[in-house]
Amino acid sequence: MDDHLLFREGLRAMLSSVPDLKIVAEASNAQEALPAVRATQPEVVILDVMLPGVSGIGIARELLRDDPNRRVLALSMVTDEAHVADALQAGVLGYACKLQSAAEVMDAIRTVARGETYLAPQVSGFVVSDVRRLRAAGSGRSPLAPLTAREREIFELCVQGNPTAQIAQQLSISPRTVETHRGRILRKLNAHSAVDLVRLAAQWGLLAQ
């Protein structure tokens, strides 16, 4: 389901060209989506994350409350850590990007249909590692959940050993802002130094890219 008619038409045309994939319903918002899915029971629900009103992530939560085994694929233009993490924590099985090729999107659909996790190449390596760790542990909450999207970026760069000046330059912010975010990260994760952050990342399996 997507609120852009042109994109839905393109997706429909793409899927109609392959024999093993078929669209059984379409929707442009939550009011249309929920009854459509409940009526047709598709093998895979494809959701745009950025829908008007109730977001795609909100719809995913509602659909998965109905049926925890439902297979949902998020398909979006946004691949920042916050949106990806929120979608995965809501229970979606895959996260694909609209900038990917048709072949890659079809592969994402087939992967989720098999009950397997799919993550677009554009997704941060830390998100990938975190998801794998959560799946293996059977846990639904990421240890990075308390962090904002910007704090997650800085956490990742700190753990990779980047100095403050380099982080500031890469993110186009001031060194002082980097230090402010680092202080918040330390407090939220109950850490005391950059070394502690590396130890936490290793403990959570986030260093295995």
Describe it for me?
By secondary structure, the chain is α/β, with parallel strands linked by helices. It folds into two domains: 5-123, Response regulator (Rossmann fold); 149-203, Winged helix-like DNA-binding domain superfamily/Winged helix DNA-binding domain (Arc Repressor Mutant, subunit A), CATH 1.10.10. It is built from ten helices and four strands. It has helices at residues 5-16, 30-40, 56-66, 81-90, 102-113, 125-137, 149-159, 164-171, 175-188, 194-203; strands spanning 44-47, 71-76, 94-97, 118-119. A four-stranded parallel beta sheet has the order 1-2-3-4. Strand 3, helix 5 (102-113) and strand 4 (118-119) form a beta-alpha-beta unit. Helix 2 (30-40) runs parallel beside helix 3, helix 7 crosses helix 9 (175-188) and helix 8 (164-171) packs across helix 9 (175-188). The radius of gyration is 19 Å and the shape is elongated. The mean pLDDT is 80.
In short:
The protein has 209 residues and is of the alpha/beta class.
